[in-house]
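User: My collaborator sent over this chain with a note saying "see what the structure looks like." That's all I know about it. Can you take a look?
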Amino acid sequence: MRKPVLTIFYQFNPWNATIGGIQTLIKTFIKYAPSEFEVRLVGTCVDSKKPVGEWQQAEFAGREISFLPLLTLQNDNVRSLIPTTLKYTAALLGRCFASDFMHFHRIEPTIATLNWQGEKTLFIHNDIQTQMQAKGDKNAILWRRYPAAYFALESLLVRQFSQILSCNTDAAQLYKQRYPKLQDRIAYIKNSFDNGVFYPLTKDEREVKRRELASRLGVDEQTRFMLFAGRLHPQKDPILLVRAFASLNEPGIHLLIAGDGELGAEVRAEIARLGLLNKVTMLGAVTQDTLAQLHRVCNVFVLSSAYEGLPLVVLEALASGTPVVTTQCGETPKLLSADSGVVCSERTPACIADALRKVLQHPGDYPTESCVRIAKPYAARTVVQQVYSEMLHRWEQRNSIAIQV
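Assistant: Without extra context I'll predict from the sequence alone. Here is the result:
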C-alpha cells in the first residue's frame, strides 16, 4: 500500500536562517513525521540561479522530503513592497499540488486551492480579532487597512477546510462563533517545541555557559542576560522592549536581541538614543541550536508583543528552564504560573521593567523545575506525533471505505 502524502504550504526555505514560530512549527512537523508518511513542502528558494517550480528530493533534520520552491525569496525576515504572501499566492495560481493531506499556515494562498481534492487543514497562529484591532503602524499587517475585505475573503475560503486548528483558545472560539456551521471542524491545538533541542542545564552547567557567553561578548563575567527572540516587526514591538530595558536601569544586566526584520534600523537608533550601546547586543537571525544555547543561559526571556497566538519561543524558553515576562496578549498569560513568569498588567516600559526587575531580583521564585513543568505538555514528540497518528487513522478509514465501495 502506498504512503499517505502530506504537502505543507508556506513561503519560506527551511535551510535558510529564518525567523518565526510558523517556520519553526513546520520544521518540527517535518522532523517528527513518522515513516508512514511521505512529506512534501512547497516553499521558496534563496538562490535566484536555482530552478523554481520543480520538485526535488532533499533532506531536512535527517528526514527525506520532496521540496518545490515556488519563487525566489532571498530574505524572508524582511518585508518587501509587495507582500510575500501575495507573491506566493500568485505563483500558486493555475497549479495543482493536491495530496491526501494539505497544511496551510496562511489563508490567502488557498484562493488557488478551492478545487483541489484532499483533506485541507488551516492553522491559525494569531488571535485575528486582536491583530486587526491593534493600534500603531497600519502597515504592520496590511489587512488592518481593509478588515471587511479580509473577513469577506476568509468567509469565501474557510469552507474548503476539513480542519481549522488554532493555538489560541480565544481565536478558536471566535471562529466557532463566526462560522457556526463549521464548529465541528474548528479546534484548539497545542503549539509544540522541539524537546530534542530545547532542554535545561544543571545549575552549575548554566553558570559555566553564562560566563562563557559573557567572555565572548566582552562583558563582565558576572553579567546576567535577558533575551528577546523574534522578528523585528510591529507585532513584537521591539521598540517598547528597548524602552522597557532602559527603564529597568538594573546594573549588570545585558539585553540580547536575536532576530531581524524591517524595524532593525529603528531599533538600533533607539538603542543609541537611549545610551544603551554597551548594554544591548543585536545578534541578528540565529540558528535554532544557537537560540537553544541562549535560552539555557539567560536569566529571563521577555515578550513585548501587541498580539500573539501562543509563541513557540515562549515554550522554548520555559523548556530551557528560563522564566518568561510577557505582555497581556495571546495564550501565554493563560499558560504561565506564578513560579514560571510574570504577566504585565500594562503594555508600558515601566510595567515591563517592573516585571523584569521582579524576576531578576528574585530568581529563586522562578525555579527551573517549574518552568520545565509548564512546557512539558507541549513537547513535539507528544503533540506532533498525536496529530500524525490521527491523520493516519483518518486516511486508513477513508481507504477502508473506498475498498468496500
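A starting point for your reply to your collaborator: The chain has a mean pLDDT of 91.
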